[in-house]
Amino acid sequence: MSLVVALVAFVAAASRDARADASTVATRRVIDVVIAGTAEDAALVKDSLGELFHRVGLETRITTTDRIAAEHERGEPSADTLVRVWIDVRAEDIATIELSDARADRPLLRRSVPREGSRAVLFEDVAHVVQAATESLIADAPSSPPPPATAGAPPIATPPPVLRPTPAERPTPIPVTPGRWNVGLATFVSGTSYARDTRLVFGAGVGARLDFGRGPWRPAFWIFGEYRPPFGDDMQSVDVRTSVWSLRALPALQLVDTPRFLLEIAAGGGFDVVSLSPGKNSAGAHFERDTTNASPILTGALVAHVTLAQSFRVFALAMVDGDVTPRRYVVAEGSTHTTIFEPLAVRPGVALGFSFDVAGSGGAP
User: Fold this and answer.
1) What is the tens place of the pLDDT at every residue in 306-360?
2) Which pairs from 52-58 meet CB under 8 Å and 24+ separation?
3) How far apart are the first and last CA of the chain?
C-alpha cells in the first residue's frame, strides 16, 4: 500500500514540475542582447531595438562588451529569456548578428549586414533584421508542448529553422532621430560676377555648418568667410585695384536627404568690406577720402552635397547676393566724372568645396 502511495505522490510532483516548466516558457518575454562595440554605438542599437520590441510587448536586456564570446563561453540563458542575440558592430562597414532560441538553445540565424549609408542607418538595419527574425520565431513557436513520441518509433530529426528575412520583412531604414546634431568644417573656392566691366572674380573661403538632424525640412546653419584678392580693369583711365572680405550667416532647410546625397536651401545675409587702392599703372595716384566701405548684403543659396566617405562630403553652392546699399566709385577731373568701379546690385556666384564632420551626436549623416 505504501508503495502505491509513493508512486502516486511521485507522479503528482512530476506533473506540477511539468506545469511549472510550461508556465516559465509561456512567460518568457525578454530579449537578451549582447553588443560588441563602443558605448555610443551600443546606445544607438539599444534605442532602435527598444522602440521596435516595445510595440509588441517585449523587453530588451542589453549588455555591452568588447568582443563576442565563443559559443562554449556564453553560458545558460536566464529563465525569462525568449531569444538570445549577439551583435558585433566593431567593424566600420559591416555588422554581424547571431540569434538563438533560448527555449531550445539552438542557433537560428547568422547574418552579416553591410552598411548602406551612415553608421546610424546601419544600426537601424540591424535592429529591423533582429526584429523580423524574433517575430517570425514567436509566430512559429507551438502553443503547447509537443506530444511524447510513440514508444518504439524512431525519433524524427527536425533541423533547426534558419530565419532569413525577405525584403518585405525588412522595413525601409528610417532617418536618424531628430535632435541629433553634427558640426562640420568646410573650405571652398568661388567665382562671382561682382562688378560692371570686370571679369569673373575668384575667391576662397572657410566656414562651418551646424546640422540639427536628418530628413526633409530639418534645419541647418551655415557661417563662412571669404576673401577675394585684388582685381580691376586695366583698361580704365585710372587703374584701381579692389579687394573684398565677406562674411555670411545662412540658416538652411534640408530638401532632399539620402545616405549619399543632400540638397538644402538657405537664406540669410552678412556684409562685404570693399577696399580700393591705386594699381601699378597709377604710380603717384592717391585717394583723398576713405576707400574702405562695408555694405550689408542679403543672400540666397542652394547647396548640393555628395557623401564620398563617412563624415566627408563635397558640395556645390549656387548663390545670389543683393547689395542693400550699392555704391559707385568715380574719379572727378573738373566737371568730368568717370566711373572707376561699380559693384553690381545683384551678384550671382558659385562655389565648390568639401566639408568634414568634427563633432556631434548620432554619427555622421
Assistant:
1) 999 878 999 999 999 999 988 887 776 666 767 777 888 999 999 999 999 888 7
2) 52/127, 52/128, 52/131, 53/131, 53/134, 56/135, 57/29, 58/29, 58/30, 58/31, 58/82, 58/134
3) 79
Residue with the three cell numbers 508542448: 145
Sign of the alpha-carbon torsion through 45, 49, 50, 52? positive
The 10 Å Cβ neighbour count of residue 215 is 14
* Neighbouring residues of 90: CB distance < 8 A, sequence distance ≥ 6: 36, 37, 67
CA–CA dist 108, 133 (Å, integer): 9
CA neighbor of 298 nearest in space, from 264, 345, 254: 345
Backbone angles phi, psi at 56, to 5 degrees: -110, 15
pTM beyond 0.70, yes or no: no
Amino acid at 54: H
Q: Are 251 and 267 in contact (CB under 8 A)?
A: yes
The Cα 327–Cα 320 span in angstroms is 18
Distance CA 296, CA 308 (A): 36
What is the CB neighbour count within 10 angstroms for residue 147? 6
Q: How far is CA 42 from CA 45, 50, 154, 212, in A?
A: 5, 12, 46, 22
For residue 320, give Cα distances in angstroms to 230, 263, 310. 21, 17, 30
User: How many Cβ atoms are within 10 Å of 254's Cβ, its own excluded?
Assistant: 22
pLDDT at position 20 is: 47
Give the pLDDT confidence score for residue 18 in this predicted structure: 47
196/191 Cα distance (integer angstroms): 15
Helix (H, G, I), strand (E, B) or coil at 256: strand
pLDDT in tens, 49-63: 877 777 767 788 888
Question: Residue 259: which pLDDT band, with cuts at 50, 70 and 90?
Answer: confident
